[in-house]
Every structure is written in structure tokens, then in C-alpha cells.
Give the backbone structure.
Amino acid sequence: MKKIITGLFLFLAYSGFCQSSDSATIRTTASIVSPIKISKTVDLNFGSIIGGYNPGSLILNTDGSRTANGVEISNAVPGEVSPAEAIVTHSNNNYSITLPSTFSLFNEVNPAQILIIDQFTVTPTPSGEGNGIDVLKIGATLNLEANQIPGNYSNPQGFNVTVSYN
Amino acid sequence: MKKITFILIALITGTTFAQGSDTGTATVNAEIVSTINISNGTNLDFGRMATPTADTEITVGTDGVRGTVTGVTIPGGTVSAAAFTVNAASGYTYSIAIPTISLTGNGTAMPIIFTHDGGTTATGTGADQTLNVGGTLTVGADQVAGAYTGTVIVTVAYN
């Protein structure tokens, strides 16, 4: 009987040492971050621009205002004007925004006529609806050539905006 | 046991970075509107008139008809309103500006105030529109006889 009791004590002692090596602290550091997401809500619309006899440009600011350089805009008939908007879900993590350097628009009647867009700008603003959500507003500069052919210009392929966790 | 735990953490971290970016796409639209144009017009002609004994206003309407004037003999001559061709984009309003000038000739310069039939705010149609211009000429008492001429610049601009 003595031998049996001794053996039982040894077994319990071994089990106790085995459990003390598991660390709860290490497990809590393994947090999973939700994937970052971007979803477009509004397209980029420069509105109507009056062509000029000389080259010019139109800056569409992220607040929706327009600045004309060398071209005219009609305040009475502005057309549809809106900076692009997108919703970013980032779970309160830092992230970077990648914008295109240039983008081309084509005349819908005569695709040989091109407008070049560059100098994209972006203003992220926290959404009031909850944590970890930003609203991005994106503007750009539209470049007109001298005597730019009138008409509607667009590019249905769209331009890409990429967001990445830092 | 510790080694196994660390391997698990490394695996989770790597998976997180793989999902760490996303791309959205937006389309872009712009409309280029044609410039507003005005062509050089025909002449505004007040015709002939005799020298009045007092300052007298002679008016040619935008329809090219000279108004009747009392106290002044009008022996005739060609009378016409000026006509310009304006081309503005459809639906776009534009302003018309004509400064006051004076006709110069042998005697004292005679001021003209112009009128036009484009209205306070004209609206383009995308096609040619005719803008008629008349005016009121003030002929002075004892105005020296002779031909008097002047040039005026008519400016149209999108509002």
C-alpha cells in the first residue's frame, strides 16, 4: 500500500508543473485586426467648364469648391459638381492612401479628344457614425488644352484608390 | 509548449498583413462648354439730319427705325440698326455690355447711348442668335455739318 500512495503523489506533482508553463499573457497578444475596406459612394464630377482660347486648368477641391485658372466656369450653370467620396473601415489603425498620378478622360463623341487629370488630393474625415470609419473626399486638377473641343468627357473604367495598413 | 505558442502567433500576424489593403474605384465626368462668340456687326447708321437750333436727341430703335423728331429737318439718308451674331452654349445665360461713346467729326463730339434687344439676361441656344443694337444720339445746337463716326466694342460674357 505504501508504494501505491507514493506513486500517486508523483503523478500529481508532474501535472502541476505542466500547467504552469502555459502563459495566458502570450495568448492575448495574438489579436486579429479586421481587414481594411474601402467603398466608393460618390463619383468625381468636375461639372461644366467653359473652354478657352488658351490652355487652362480647373481645380476641384476636396470641399467641392472649384478654382479656375485660365478657363471660365459659370456660377449660374455649374453642372454636376462633386468630389469623389469613399468610406474606409480601418478599425482605428493607421493606414496609407494611394492615389493615381494621372488619369485620362475621353470625349464621349470623339474619343480622340482627351482631358488629363492630375494632382489628386484627398481629405479623410472621421465619420460620426462610429469608430474606425473615415470618409475620404478626393479632388483633382483637370487640364484643358487651348480650344478644347466641347462635349462630355468621361472614363467608365474609373480610377483606383488603394488604402493599406501601415 | 512555449515554442508551439510562438509559432501560432507568427502565423496569425502574417495573415493580418495579407488582408491589409483594399482598392476602390470611382469614375470621373466633366463637361466642356463652348466659348461664347460674337461676330463683327453691321453699322448703326443714324442717317442725315439738319443742324437743330437746340440740343436734340435722335433715336434709332433696334428694329432699325428712326424715331420722329420735332424741330429738326431730316432730309433722309440710310438708317439702320447694327446687327451682331452671338453664339453661346445652350442654356447658358450671358451678359451684353456696350459702353457709351461719342461720334467725332468736324464739330463737337456727339454722345450716343446704345440699346439692344438681348434683354438684361440673354440665354444661349447653341445656335447663332442675332443681337440688334440701336441708340440715341444727341445732336448739339448749331452742330457743325459733316460726317461723324465712332467705333464701339460690344462684349458678351457668360454669367
Notes: Chain A is about 15% helix and 50% strand. Chain A touches chain B through 63 residues (CB under 8 Å). Residues 1-20 of chain A have pLDDT under 50 and may be disordered.
